Automatic annotation (TrEMBL):
Keywords on record: Cytoplasm, Methyltransferase, Ribonucleoprotein, Ribosomal protein, S-adenosyl-L-methionine, Transferase
Binding site for S-adenosyl-L-methionine: 175, 196, 218, 261
Gene name in the database record: prmA
Organism: Paucilactobacillus hokkaidonensis
The protein's name: Ribosomal protein L11 methyltransferase
Primary residence: cytoplasm
EC number: 2.1.1.-
Length: 329
């Protein structure tokens, strides 16, 4: 184990750990530092590969390296972020950039990204000072559950959230793109499937915009619990049904709209599932697509039979509105 920079762990830090392979530790460390980490810790199985029994004990005693707790395979890079960095909003970018390492000839391994507080302080209160009401579209404003906010216009709709460590507070470009896309396609009384619901923000927005039935799914139990709590904050959303599920596997519910704010690599296997579940003329809205993956997703959508209606862009992130055409189109 080695520490690349000295980190003074105090009561106000959050750690983010990326599970990767030895060859990628320096690249992953760069990504984490580039996104505001104050230091990184690297645990690499290869650090132990050539060690022989020696004086590794705390008191200089002879110790077999195999008896020292360590990773048996691969590596883990842990970054430490101060309160000034709102960690839930950078997690999608970390995942995206780690996955992209493969295109540079590096093996990112599983690329699993996890986060946790490293102190006894309640993390929820730690980041609240950095999360305020945000007007994300013409009609939709995301409001923290602890804030008092008065609508500035008569047609302004409020989404109350207490996102915790789940994705989707409305401020990240990928979430904003999907909220804008929903405003563009919702006409009222549709059935919508929300794949990778995160905090539930898109499902709640859909109900505010007039969607009839909403079914939300997420593979992460933490996200499911977060979404369920956020539904309670928005009475109009009480009919939303949220269940843990891996994309749309096993889902038989047909829909007029399917929305997915997830990484491009996960959108690819979702495309045929979405096409099967969509009614003819229905819309598939997807985001989480970094610029260099946009052409790939468009190609996959068109190959499946989708027509591209709109492409939306904020910074380096793309959102796509596709639809399932009528048989004679």
């Amino acid at each position: 184990m080695r520490l690349d920079k000295k980190v003074d762990i105090i009561m106000e830090w959050t750690q983010v750990t990326v599970t990767t392979e030895s060859e990628s530790v320096e690249a992953v460390s760069f990504i984490l530092n580039d996104l505001g980490a104050s230091g990184v810790k690297i645990e690499d199985s290869k650090d132990f590969a050539n060690l022989k029994p020696g004086k590794y004990g705390p008191h200089g005693e002879i110790t077999d390296p195999d008896d020292i707790p360590h990773l048996k395979v691969g590596a883990a890079v842990t970054a430490y972020y101060p309160q000034s960095v709102f960690v839930p909003e950078i997690l999608p970018t970390i995942k995206q950039r780690v996955a992209k390492l493969a295109s540079f000839g590096l093996n990112p391994g599983t690329g699993e990204v996890t986060s946790s507080a490293v102190s006894d302080e309640n993390w929820a209160t730690a980041w609240k000072k950095y999360y305020h009401p945000v007007r994300v579209t013409r009609h939709l404003t995301v409001v923290p559950s602890w804030e008092e906010y008065q609508p500035q216009q008569r047609d302004e709709q409020l989404i109350y959230l207490d996102p915790g460590m789940a994705f989707g507070t409305g401020t990240h470009p990928t979430t904003r793109l999907m909220l804008q896309a929903l405003e563009m396609v919702v006409r009222g009384n549709e059935t919508l499937l929300d794949v990778g619901t995160g905090s539930g923000v898109l499902s709640i927005a859909a109900k505010l915009l007039g969607v009839g039935n909403v079914y939300a799914y997420d593979v992460d139990d933490v996200a499911v619990r977060s979404a369920l709590e956020n539904i309670k904050l928005n009475p109009i959303a009480k009919s939303i049904r949220i269940t843990p599920n891996d994309l749309l596997k096993g889902v038989t519910q047909s829909a007029d709209i399917i929305v997915a704010n997830i990484l491009a690599e996960i959108i690819v296997p979702l495309i045929p599932q979405a096409y099967e579940r969509l009614n003819v003329g229905g819309h598939f809205l997807c985001s989480g697509i970094i610029a260099d993956k946009a052409d790939l997703i468009i190609e996959k959508l068109q190959k499946q039979g989708f027509r591209i209606q709109e492409t939306l862009k904020i910074d380096d992130w793309y959102g796509i509105i596709a639809y399932k055409p009528l048989p004679d189109e």
